[in-house]
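Journal club prep — side note

Before the paper discussion, L.F. wants everyone to see what a predicted structure for a comparable chain looks like in token form. Sequence:
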Amino acid sequence: VLMAITLCHSKAQTNLTASDISAKAGETVTMSVMATGAFDAFSFVVKSPEGIKLSKVQRGALIKAQNDDEEYIYSYANAVREDGTRYVQCYSASAIATTEPGEVSKLVFDIDPTVTAGKYDIELLETECALEGNTVSTYTTYTATITVDDATGIDNIGTSWTPEGKIAIYNAAGKMVKQV
């Protein structure tokens, strides 16, 4: 029986994923990083494209647990690397594992006002989840997307370029209301 428990436990897998989100140029948005299972430590590196700046990294709800002395069970830190990427690390000094999936980090991005509409990759690199000193993650890279929509500064109004090189302005119903 002990051997069966050990075999089942050794097959545990936990990975880090991130949510795809939408934004408009000039906005600040938050992307959640989720763990899919049990861990007592994790780390990853965030790489964002030009014009999309990672301005803040915050502890996610899953790792806000505190002990009886009201101290965090998980140590959590991040630092900017020389290449502009951000390294994030979390571990439990007392090896207390979380046993369920959930949000482990919040990544806050500032979208430059000059960023054009399109899809932009946010890469989680060097991802690793560990449990009792063993790596339990099955991949090291995960890519999420920030979709930047056309921004007009007015809710429910859209814009696009016409073939003549003019800007077409559309109302919430999708009807063109003006060309400039």
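L.F.'s comment for the group: Helices lie at 2-10. Keep this in mind when we get to the figures.
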